[in-house]
Amino acid sequence: MKIEMTLAIEAYPIAGRFVISRGAKTEARVVTATLRAGDACGRGECVPYARYGESVESVAAAIEAVRGAIEAGADRAALQRLLPAGAARNAVDCAMWDLEAKLSGKRAFAAAGFARLSPLVTAYTLSVGTPEEMRAAAVKAADRPLLKIKLAGEGDEERLAAVRAGAPHARLIVDANEAWREETLVAQLAACARFDVALVEQPLPAGRDEMLASIARPIPICADESAHETASLDALRGRYDAVNIKLDKTGGLTEAMAMAEAARRMGFEIMAGCMVGTSLAMAPASFIGQMATFVDLDGPLLLARDREPGLVYEGSTMMPPPAALWG
Questions:
Q1: Catalytic residue among 25, 106, 148, 246
Q2: How far is the C-alpha of 208 from the C-alpha of 37, rounded, in Å?
């Protein structure tokens, strides 16, 4: 089948700033791939991540390098060989899922093996800041059932205390984004336990997380930067209790579904995660959310402006994606 592909680099403003241990940003820059076959059109969005050496320019160039094969009709299986795991493959893979749904008249969730999609309760992310700033943010978000707290290392116990004071009834996840160190890890986990944290995400730098296998873990530990695709799971045994599956890391929904199934077989809990992107990126990720213990698909809630049409969020409850958006 002859396919016509177009690429677009787009920017969506963030409401305020999004701040983690590695830095801050005020907009989400995304690459959108659109595949057309006759009157049918499929779209996919990716969010390049500098942590993995990606930019919107490098991702667009990687996709352009395989344009010929894609427009000649390469399918999702072939795409896994054409591009490595990462944001570039994600945009095209999700566009292929969407196009397949449009051509077949069968919703993508049915093709993925789901009878239906259930609404999901997503975490809502609080950026790292001073304890006073984080308490104020927690007060504003106190009615949300699940908060994800970005931490940065030194001063994190004070940040946690401030958030817990501001949102005394919310369930908490903390995400250190690799900012903690071996010499303080045990004390930081103990502090999290005191503040009734449900999950700690990526406390130590990827590649320097051996200590996690030799300590008591009072709280489940989730791999993010250490977990990319199915092949990465085996090395996480004994160190982590859960894995954060993001389509921009796995290189699309196809590999993300395979990784989720493998993770469950290996006894890992699953977090469905995201970069800060629009509803177009969250829609396919909602499939992983159906299999997840923790859902973190709040990207559109952090934006000042989303795509139209977008996902419907009722508070922190994310409704299944409409066909007009994706799938």
A1: 246
A2: 46
Q: Could you tell me which CATH class the domain 120-318 is placed in?
A: alpha beta
Which tens digit of pLDDT belongs to each residue from 176-216? 999 999 999 999 999 999 999 999 999 999 999 999 999 99
Half-sphere exposure of 165 (CA within 13 A, CB side): 12
Pair 199, 220: CB distance under 8 Å? yes
Query: What does the pLDDT average to over 163-174?
Result: 98
pLDDT of residue 258: 98
3-state helix, strand, coil in the chain (%, to 5): 40, 25, 40
Buried b (16+ CB within 10 A) or exposed e, 6-40: ebeebebebeeebbbbeeeeeebbbbbbbbbbeeb
**Residue 6 confidence (pLDDT):** 98
Selected catalytic residue, list 102, 148, 150, 249? 150
In the residue annotation, 25 being an active-site residue is answered as no
Q: Stretch 4-9: mean pLDDT, rounded? A: 98
- Three-state secondary structure call for residue 120: strand
* Domain definitions of the chain by residue range: 4-105, 120-318
Side-chain half-sphere of 122: how many Cα atoms within 13 Å? 30
| Length of the chain, in residues | 327
The conformation of residue 264, written as its DSSP 8-state character, comes to H
Let me know: does 273 contact 248? Beta carbons within 8 Å. Answer: no
249 catalytic? Reply is no
Of 296, 301, 326, the closest CA to residue 91 belongs to: 326
Q: What's the pLDDT score for residue 17?
A: 81
Q: What is the token pair recorded at 142?
A: 């106190």
- Which CATH architecture describes the domain 4-105? 2-Layer Sandwich (3.30)
Q: What are the DSSP E strand ranges found in 221-316? A: 221-223, 242-245, 269-272, 294-295, 313-314
pTM above 0.85, yes or no: yes
